[in-house]
Amino acid sequence: MQRGEQTKIGQGQGSRLGGYVGIALGLALGVVGASSACSSRRPQPTVAPLPRPSLCNLEVPQSRAGAMPTLRADNWGRLMLRGYNPGIAPGNAVDCTGRSISWREPSVRCWETDIEEQNAAGVPIPQRPITEDDVKVSRLEGNLRLVWVIVDRFRNGEAVGPVALTEFEGNRVHVRAMGTLRTFPQRVRLRLQNVGTRRVLIGEGEVCENDADLTTCRRQARFMLLRGDRFVAEPLRTAGGRCLGPARFEFAKRRTVRLGDTGLDRTFDLQTQLQYLGAGVQVHEQVIVSDLDPRRPDVPARVFRRAGQDRAIYVQNDAFVASDNSLWFRVLHVNARTNVADAGTAYDASAVDVPDADVEEESIYADFIDGGVE
Fold this sequence. Notes:
By secondary structure, this protein is mainly beta. It has one domain (16-30, 47-365). It is built from 4 helices and 23 strands. The strands form 4 sheets. Strands 1, 5, 6, 7, 8, 9, 10, 11, 12, 13, 14 and 17 form a 12-stranded mixed sheet that branches. A 7-stranded mixed sheet has the order 16-15-22-21-20-19-18, with helices on both faces. Strands 2-3 form a two-stranded antiparallel ribbon. The protein starts with 15 loop residues before the first helix and ends in a 33-residue tail after the last strand.
């Protein structure tokens, strides 16, 4: 993906949103520039060692000298799964530590809530017996492996299953850390990334409308925090603790809506890049909004708006903290005129997050740390 030229939002619009993006982008670039000048003098953060206790293990044939140890799909299933019975409802199985293999997005009402995506994400498709295609293995250093076993799939293309940090030792393979991962299931890449002083599991994957045409594929990254010996799906939050949404980043995304007042088809195109730095993750986002008149399909679409932003993701106090909202939702909030909801809709009063329904629009963007990874 090419990173587009970053500009302020709007041409002749004079919107507040454009000012916020310009200020955030200036802060991000200024901090990144200052960081690169002194990065050689800054000590690297100390990361806690990987967990050592064996949560569960399986005897395996001794590998011959020089061979890379591995397992077949059925043996990975024997190691990581208990009670999986294809055809039963999602969540019927447990992992090898006895915890249910089920996924729950943040229970609080988050600002970046897309009702259309949320509905599709909750519709399961029939389970099937586990095959080699359902077991995703990424090699780390030495005999460490990250392994994801898919047991449930959903209408939006995502899949769910236990994920484990494993290690081969002698004639056994041990599970050092365990959790449940949800992401797209094709061309999967699992990594364990240092972010500040913490370790973060990053599960990248794709889903394609046509497997033979890579231009129809969508790729995303899901972040999970290693807390002790568990991978935990923490949401993104502001510095003040308000929930933004899942720690999930789509690299390319498109949405088209029909504008009721003009009859035009308005298309939103997102391009995202992630840059992993020592202190945090830099997220580069660009959104292009264009309008097409369906009554005149021979006339090319007209670009209505371009927007670019850098924002930073940190780990602070066992939480993923973002320096800003996602650009995608900020542009949709202003220009889509759809059912994209804010935190004031169906707000759960038992949650700790503060609703935004009765707050001036400026304050929606006021609860953030400076953008840019130091």
